[in-house]
Amino acid sequence: MPDGCFARRPVEEAAGRLVASIRAFRPHVVVTYDETGGYPHPDHIRTHEVTVAAFDAAGDAGRHPEAGPPWQPAKLYYHGALSRAWFQTMHDAMTARGLESPMREVLAELPADVPAPEFSTRVSCADHFPVRDRALLAHATQIDPDAGFMLHDRDVEREVWPTEDYHLARSHVPVTLPEDDLFAGLR
Fold first, then answer.
1. pTM of this structure
2. What's the CA gap between 140 and 144, in Å, rounded?
3. Selection from 163, 164, 169 nearest residue 78 by Cα
4. What is the 3-state secondary structure of the chain?
5. What value does the mean pLDDT take over residues 41-64?
6. Using alpha carbons only, what angle is made at residue 76 by residues 25 and 22, rounded to the nearest 5 degrees?
7. pLDDT for the residue numbered 113
């Protein structure tokens, strides 16, 4: 890892900055990567660590008092994107249809022994895949439009995995699982 990269930042220092944002914006729901980072990317793993620390600290007036008045988000989710299960499902569906699978290379890079994520919440969003894709492509330094995730057939995705998936990691409100809405229990 290069010096100065996010993965090397002290968790509490970065969490304090995120606590300030949570207290300023007052979200009811916070979403982050799971402890694997979605795939073992050091910055994603640190994002998980920082977000969990900030979620736990944001409602505690005694922690990071410089970050403003306390605000406790109600729910913390781990996003299921980038899971080996998703890449494998897409690969299998594309090859079964005689399509070239851009997932083959991605699967070769992912650890084979990662357990499938346990999703508590699946949000139907197939109609919004074009918006999701445009949002991803707006991060030009992070997303290659000609590689990996961006190359799969969206019609196949709509058919075999039409949801964005999450694991409810913490909740300060009563919930009934499974959910189909990140804001379930908050209205």
1. 0.90
2. 7
3. 169
4. CCCCCHHHCCHHHHHHHHHHHHHHHCCCEEEECCCCCCCCCHHHHHHHHHHHHHHHHHCCCCCCHHHCCCCCCCEEEEECCCCHHHHHHHHHHHHHCCCCCCHHHHHHHCCCCCCCCCCCEEEECHHHHHHHHHHHHCCCCCCCCCCHHHHCCHHHHHHHCCEEEEEEEEECCCCCCCECCCCCCCC
5. 95
6. 20
7. 81
Token digits for 182? 């990140």
Encoded tokens for 16 = 């304090």
What are the structural domain ranges in the chain? 1-79, 80-176
Could you give the CA distance from residue 15 to residue 46 in angstroms, rounded to a whole number? Answer: 10
Query: In this predicted structure, what is the pLDDT of residue 50?
Result: 97
CA 159 – CA 152 distance, rounded (Å): 12
User: Distance between CA 76 and CA 35 in Å, rounded?
Assistant: 13
Amino acid symbol at 131: V
Angle at 110 between CA 108 and CA 112, to 5 degrees: 90
- Mean pLDDT calculated for residue range 144-150: 83
Residues shown for the chain: 187
Sign of CA pseudo-dihedral 38, 43, 46, 48: negative
Please choose, from the candidates 33, 131, 43, the residue with its C-alpha nearest in 3D space to the C-alpha of residue 83.
Answer: 33
pLDDT digits (tens, 9 = 90+) for 96-126: 999 999 888 888 888 788 777 789 999 999 9
